[in-house]
Amino acid sequence: MIEMIDVKKTYPNGVSAIGGINVKIKPGEFVYVVGTSGAGKSTFIKMMYREERPTSGNIIVNGVSLPKLRNTKVPLFRRNIGVVFQDYKLLQTLSVYENVAFAMEVIESTPAQIKKRVMEVLELVGLKHKVRMLPSELSGGEQQRISIARSIVNSPKIVIADEPTGNLDPETSWEIMNIFEQINKNGTTVVMATHNRDIVNNMPHRVIAIEDGQIVRDEQRGEYGYEN
Ligand code: ADP
Ligand code: ADP
Question: In its keyword annotation, does this UniProt entry include Membrane (predicted)?
């Protein structure tokens, strides 16, 4: 499903962010990516959805070889990948409903399909009663729920999340994690960069630890393993 072979990434300014990674993630897995700030976690996951290209090596995601993938083919490739960010990245002038529907309009679903599916995913994240509100009228946790609804509305095979609970209090973080757990139980692969020790230790899954651009630990049922 996701495979990296001898992947290296050096940014144009000469910073080596990833120094030779080999990894395989199977369909249906739930993987935490942990490591200190600047370790290379974001770069590692950005390469999975072709936000960054590797400097060398190969990355195959859903059967697509990414280094060679043309820019014009990237939107099609990304239909099978949902992405969730720490800061939600919602469109502030659009309602909850419109933020989620937008992702389906882009791929030209019919209005009937859109309405049915948008309400379905808003129900899954528990926001069906707030469809007409604007992101600014909602709490951080509610905004992250919209962002998760948007990420899964096109039924992707993989959801990638970069610090999704980074701006949320512990209780809200657990609510958000339970949604990811549900999405994973429904068969979607989840890859999540996180600093949340409590969650990693108490909702155990595979842990890939990155330090200085290398995988230093890869455990099927791992622990967070850092002081903070
Ligand atoms: P993490 O997500 O673990 O904090 P990053 O992947 O963001 O780590 O960063 C890894 C290293 O690459 C850091 O030294 C960071 O400063 C550098 N880096 C990240 N993005 C860029 C970029 N766009 N240009 C140059 N250097 C970058
Ligand atoms: P995160 O907290 O998610 O790890 P970062 O703080 O590492 O994010 O980076 C935030 C943004 O800035 C990213 O888009 C990253 O690519 C970019 N960035 C990070 N470090 C550098 C850098 N040294 N030079 C240029 N861009 C960078």
Answer: yes
Ligand 1 centre and the CA of 77: distance in Å? 24
Pocket (CB within 6 angstroms of ligand 1): 11, 13, 15, 17, 35, 37-43
ipTM over 0.85: no
- Gap from CA of 37 to ligand 1 centroid (Å): 9
CB 145 within 8 A of CB 126: yes
- 3-state DSSP call for residue 62? coil
List, for residues 16-70, the tens digit of each pLDDT value.
Answer: 999 999 999 999 999 999 999 999 999 999 999 999 999 999 999 999 999 999 9
Burial of 171 (0-12, 13-18, 19+ CB in 10 A): exposed
pTM for this model (two decimals): 0.89
